[in-house]
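the two lines:
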Amino acid sequence: MIQKKRNGEELTGEEIQFFVKGYTEGSIPDYQASALMMAIYFRGMNEKETATLTQAMVDSGETIDLSAIEGHIVDKHSTGGVGDKVTFIVGPLVASVGVPVAKMSGRGLGHTGGTLDKLESIEGFNIEISKDVFVNNVNTNKLAVAGQTGNLAPADKKLYALRDVTATVDSIPLIAGSIMSKKLASGADSIVLDVKTGSGAFMKTLEESEALAKEMVNIGKNLGKNTVAVISDMNQPLGYEVGNANEIKEAVEILQGKNVKDLRRLSLEIASHMTVLAEVFSSYEEAYEALEANLENGKAFEAFRSFVSAQGGNVEMIDDLTKLPKADYHIEVKAEQDGYVAEIDAESIGVAAMYLGAGRATKDDVINHGVGITLKKKIGDTVKAGETLVVLHSEKETANDSRDKVKAAYTIIENAPTDTTLIHKVIK
Amino acid sequence: MIQKKRNGEELTGEEIQFFVKGYTEGSIPDYQASALMMAIYFRGMNEKETATLTQAMVDSGETIDLSAIEGHIVDKHSTGGVGDKVTFIVGPLVASVGVPVAKMSGRGLGHTGGTLDKLESIEGFNIEISKDVFVNNVNTNKLAVAGQTGNLAPADKKLYALRDVTATVDSIPLIAGSIMSKKLASGADSIVLDVKTGSGAFMKTLEESEALAKEMVNIGKNLGKNTVAVISDMNQPLGYEVGNANEIKEAVEILQGKNVKDLRRLSLEIASHMTVLAEVFSSYEEAYEALEANLENGKAFEAFRSFVSAQGGNVEMIDDLTKLPKADYHIEVKAEQDGYVAEIDAESIGVAAMYLGAGRATKDDVINHGVGITLKKKIGDTVKAGETLVVLHSEKETANDSRDKVKAAYTIIENAPTDTTLIHKVIK
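prediction for all of em together
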């Protein structure tokens, strides 16, 4: 089978299933799996092979049964970026038009916390709810978020760990299969993918991002789940806030009607596709208009409040955002020259936030919900020497490593840069 | 390092040494080694990388010190074919002009026995001689053959076993490095390689064989050993005999002056290059003439007698070849139609010989020295229906599996086929 793939031949469904089963059970050793992964890196996989691999990985473990939830469940997944708090906006927004959002999330490693960590910025918020409470909350409020339990796609977990140490991560069909296997095991009826592209994303070029998006949409189609992918820009952090409590704060401000341009626009884009897939609206335009109205009339905010309250969170913190956890020190990083912001390396901003304590470098690190970074300038903004570029929310009086990282992340030039594109493409 | 090779970048000497050392010691796991091997399969290695890999594999174990042997030692290696008894002719032939041949051989698996098994057809022949006896024999008779002892190129052994189960054997630089690491560890000053090409060879096409030959010659050059490769035909067995005792018999007949065309020609070719490398002759033509004379004047045969005698072998068996071990039954396989022999699939003849007991299918099989196959017709010969194509020397009265295999190996056509080429190319 390794030789077949090495020679560029198509693998049969039986062969792929045999491999996934054998590898998960341990009868196929790591060294054969890694050789196969490398052969796939070079030879790729066609649509059929990729779909079969994904389904075999789903079948390797448990799948979550959400049939007790009423309505068409649409899941949303982001390939990961800096300052990405879209889930906290899209969830209540979609719920506000009656589409159930049943989100299982992880903590993971990263520059900032995961969805669960960010929600735990809200005092009392409980993510460890039982399946019954989860289902009941979704049926009542159309929105619940819980920690991921169960052994979803164990084949993917094992393969990913192997790929990570054998230079076989960067294969589009393998990445697509890995993401989609977890999504498909989570039991949603349809999926909207936010595929990030740019310097702060896993996929640096539009070409790669588009290839990944197409591959995932094809997997979804082949396995009977309607899937839409939005390719969105990650050449700078999304919105102005990076961290945990401050990301919740910015998301809530959007829900309260504030217009943070890129963040609001992308959230409405994703929510529109989700609600169209759920067949609540018949067109994107119709969805967009209705959802935008719900940001302005308070219905989306109200959905968020109910959700927080149902999971034990202190709603006062949402009503008065100054009550969210805050860091002790606020360190301003200033521009050294006049000009325009041309680039903000998102990954460096993420790393700077992690240095402050907003994320986990290793599994055992404890997250500090109050620390983080507020951008004062984004790409295209004019800057004067001495003006503040960024505020570091720090637990310590000085944060030189973060300050240096942030300074290096900004590129300031003399002339106005060309406009950035937020939404590059939608793949259906 | 895996990623670097995967991306087509050149590995540094330090990286390759680090890998070979780490893999041999066990600090680099199989799954990373197999991924690297697959990346090398796709990306190849340049001359420098291949030489460094080979040297690192040599350095992973012991090397044989042959400095106590007087003169310029030339080793000879064949990539393996059916009916290949060239070593038994070339060894005494080269020794007969004063060039020391100090040969370490293995048994291995295969259609027929290895060099050691074939020599053990001669009653009393002892391959388990001490290093001192070995060196002394070479200095006295210019020829000795011993079982390979010592831990030569353990990195190659470990890597080869891994490549075998991960579809990464078929990589020219890896094959070349594997062969050359063992040869270089064996302590010769120069090396002549007999690279077989054709249906009965590991390399089926001339193009592949030439690529392998060039790669090995380059490794030799880069590591300071003069190396010549002869690309010779293996589209039919070499000579007329396939087995153990019968191969010794045919080799001795050549040493006694008989002209078995392909076998004699190839032996003289290889011996000529060996003696030129040893600087006994200044040109190929001069060497060829002198060596041919030594086949005719009995000096080469005399060298073989002394060699057999020195290692305890019964010389009577050499003087009277009818005394060599013989099988009980001689089964004739006859042609079913008139015509010309167009093809003899060498591999099938080899497998048929193994069925008779001439080779080992598994490590524990015991070789029967008397059994084997005698070809009565070779490519280009005319055949009449009912004429004998092949004689099977069998321990059993019937040998239907061998008979069927041999029958299927022969292709007989109406018109005379084009002449076959024996020596395709010499790479220096």
